Amino acid sequence: MTTWSEFTAEAPHISEIFRRRHLATGNLCMLATLRSDGFPRISPVEPMIFEEKLVIAGMPRTTKFRDLTRDPRFCLHTATVDTMVSDGDAKLFGVVVDDPDTALHARFAQYLYEDSGMDLRGRAFDHFFVADLTSASSVEVGDDTLKITIWKPGEGEQVVEKR
After folding, report:
1. What is the Cα–Cα distance from 151 to 132, expressed in whole angstroms?
2. For residues 82 and 77, what is the distance between their CA atoms, to the nearest angstrom?
3. pLDDT in tens, 72-120
4. Which of 48, 79, 92, 126 could form an S-S bond across to 25 if both were Cys, CB 3.0 to 4.6 Å?
């Protein structure tokens, strides 16, 4: 499993773009999952980095989480509103792991309460999805250059520039 800290160590440029875009949108990202009929589904989600894990959390019993329960593959894309992509753009690919650690859930609920006032303390989580990252990419647009950075575990970042 590639943890968030391993990802940031191996892909510092992509992770920096992800963090910057993630914060700029109030933590909003777009989550791509696979529906039961095999077609893609794109849903808004507010992933959180907690204890060096990328947690894909949200309202329980939603279709996106049913999708992930059935097929754990996902793509997480930073929400882009600028057609010129002047601040960059990042995509993270992987599978979710449903972490059953109730002590972790309790710490996360406490963190949520302190951070946002949302009180899930003492409640059982239906699922606690943690991302196992399998690849990532970022895009940056310059005056006359498109810079694409690609990462795969153990391979570091590779940069492709197109003019």
Report:
1. 14
2. 14
3. 999 999 977 777 777 899 999 999 999 999 999 999 999 999 999 999 9
4. 79
Rounded distance between C-alpha atoms, residue 152 and residue 163, angstroms: 24
Structure tokens at 8: 């940031």
**What is the set of domains in the chain, with CATH numbers?**
4-162 (2.30.110.10)
State mean pLDDT over 21-27. 89
Beta bridge partners of 72: none
Q: Model-level pTM? A: 0.93
- Enter the tokens of residue 148: 């694409």
| Cβ contacts of 112 within 8 Å, gap of 6 or more | 118, 119, 120
Q: What's the start-to-end Cα distance of the chain, in Å? A: 36
Classify residue 129 as exposed, middle or buried by CB count within 10 Å of its CB (0-12, 13-18, 19+): buried
- The token pair at 37 is 């009929």
CB atoms closer than 10 angstroms to residue 65: 23
